[in-house]
Amino acid sequence: VISIWDYIGKLNNSVVSTYPLSFEKLYHPFGFVLYKATVQFRPTDPAVLTVKNIADRGYVYVNKVLQGVLSREQKVESIPVQVLKGQEIEILVENQGRVCTGQNDQKGIFQNVTLGSKVLQNWTMIPIPLDPKSIQKIESSTEETDSVSAPSFYTGEFQVPSSVKILDTFLKVDGWHKGVAFLNQFNLGRYWPIVGPQLTLYAPSVLFQNSSTVNRITLLELENSPCNNENNCIVQFVDTPIVDGPTPEY
């Protein structure tokens, strides 16, 4: 396990701007960007943090303590936060993808962020790379521990006996909440089983290594992992896809 905060601390690609910049202006078309700013005034308690038109989902932290979630899909643009002067507001923004039609679908934060009636300025933005080389570095940095909570990268290893014929399969992540899955540094896709309806991710046979070669499965879990109990800190590969799971009632 390695927390996303520790991973971000190893990066040297931060961008500083008076106001937030979109993913596009950061030349980061996919994935995640961390936006952070220090509160330079004495806010009310609580104070309402507002991020208009966030694209697409933002996890709001104060000094790395989760305060709530902003959502373009659910039209949640404001949340109350408890923050003091000198503390840092961090917003981990997820680009949830684009439809195949439409124009000007910017991602990230591209309007002023307000805390109460004041505009937050002097932002640091850190694009978070999730390409194969970056995932390989993450996997080499993970440590066995039970004291790290989400958002974190969780890596497990397994071997496939040489006598076993490798077939296409499907990754099932019961107990995990929301995130991105990687098999041998290949991005299998996003999982979000509590929302559904897709409960498995396709894992083609060509991604697996057999014999003495170690296979690695890595999950970037954004919200809640089942790993407070090591017996539940598991994933499964199953032979049948599940794409008709339950969905929320709106």
From TrEMBL:
GO biological process entries? carbohydrate metabolic process
Which InterPro entries would you find in this protein's record?
Answer: BetaGal1-like_ABD1, BetaGal_gal-bd, Galactose-bd-like_sf, Glycoside_Hdrlase_35
Question: Where's the Beta-galactosidase galactose-binding domain?
Answer: 151-210
What's an example of a GO molecular-function annotation for this chain?
hydrolase activity, hydrolyzing O-glycosyl compounds
Residues forming the Beta-galactosidase 1-like first all-beta domain are: 20-128
Which domain of life does the UniProt lineage start with? Eukaryota
Q: Does the keyword Endoplasmic reticulum apply?
A: no
| A Pfam family reported for this protein in Swiss-Prot or TrEMBL | BetaGal_ABD_1
Q: Mind listing the UniProt keywords for this protein, alphabetically?
A: Glycosidase, Hydrolase
What is the protein name stated in its UniProt record?
Beta-galactosidase
Q: Which organism is it from?
A: Araneus ventricosus (Orbweaver spider)
